[in-house]
Amino acid sequence: MDLYGNSAWPPEKRASALLAELSLEEKLAQVQGIFPLGESAYRWESIRASVPNGIGHVSTLEMRCMETLEEAAEWQRTVQRIVMSNSPHHIPAIFHMEGICGPFLQDSTSYPSGMARGAGWDPELEEEIARDVSRQEAACGVTQVLAPVLDIARDPRLGRYGESYGEDPTLVAALGTAYAKGLHSGETAGRRTEGAAKHFLGFHASQGGIHGAHSELTPRTLREVFAKPFQAAITEAGLKGIMPCYCSINGEPATSSRAVLRGLLRGEMGFSGVCVSDYSAVSNVFRVQHVCESLPQAGLRCLRAGLDVELPSAAAFGAELLELFRSGEADVSALDEAVLRVLTAKFRMGLFEEPFALQGEELRRPVCGGPGRACISIGIPADYIAAQSCQFPGSLLLCLRQIPAAGNAHVHNHIG
After folding, report:
1. Confidence bin at 30 (pLDDT 50/70/90)
2. Is the torsion defined by CA of 134, 103, 285, 254 positive or negative?
3. Cα–Cα dist 55/49, whole Å
4. Cis ω on the peptide bond leading into residue 11 (within 30° of 0)?
């Protein structure tokens, strides 16, 4: 058995052993993602051609359009088989999905917005919501949840205002930490989910409430207001995933900022996990924020700053960046550092042992509760909740401390 195949070893040691065996092409594949969307999500040969050396991440946004839970699970299994068969070392991909208001899966549970849940001031309930999200997504082979949202929202002009828990750093810290604890609290089918908290840092402080614009923040405000919830989740919940914001912070794009990602996040705050980019944020450094002379130079700048994965697909982390490493123009140590973190996460998640979504009743049980499924309530009868739902359509049942995670009355499955 290869050393990295020994599940008794710690994830870090297994990752180091595997990293030592990878070619340059395999390493770069681990910091890339693919984004199968629409008809392209079912073109298997096209997907196969896009992952010649395997891949680090797979976007599951297409799952929201799939008509059944079983179709989504079969799609995950098919794509994962392609990825692993193309990888010389059979490395599985991380499948990621949103989780702010629940999974993008048929028959899964939907929850009210972050702002609505923030109004409940209930960390215990938030942790239970996250456990539900983790269980449902992991059953379908998804192990990175793009949540919690730890933004401090003080400008309602921003279009994504409702994603946040609110304007108070202590409230956001308490609920976000509870959510992260819930994600990390157990395992489903041998898989463990990890959160990617977002959007680091000062996303909602952008000028004019414009999405992804400039944020001018003093060092004290940056740390004591906007970094506080992230620090709490790192320290109290062992958060292992971060997604930087689209904004420029004090004139420097967060995605490519060594001061933000390596100095503040990894240095001052002690974060040791994986940094994944927001969708197209790495290419935005060059194309929108006009930093660096080319896409690969922008990719290299992000990698050196402490970013690990470009999502949703490789633009700046592509063939031209590979040539910079191959020629010796760029030091491969920055790539090795990122790949090590990605591989360590995959071992932590249990993907090398359990890479595939569940099937049949084993799939439906954690998502739907199986036959005779019943509401998970906290001291309130299910028939009362049903009556309230009919009387006040669109109301936030969360205010009644009711989690309609499953039930015979399917109407309760989507509440927000």
Report:
1. very high
2. negative
3. 11
4. no
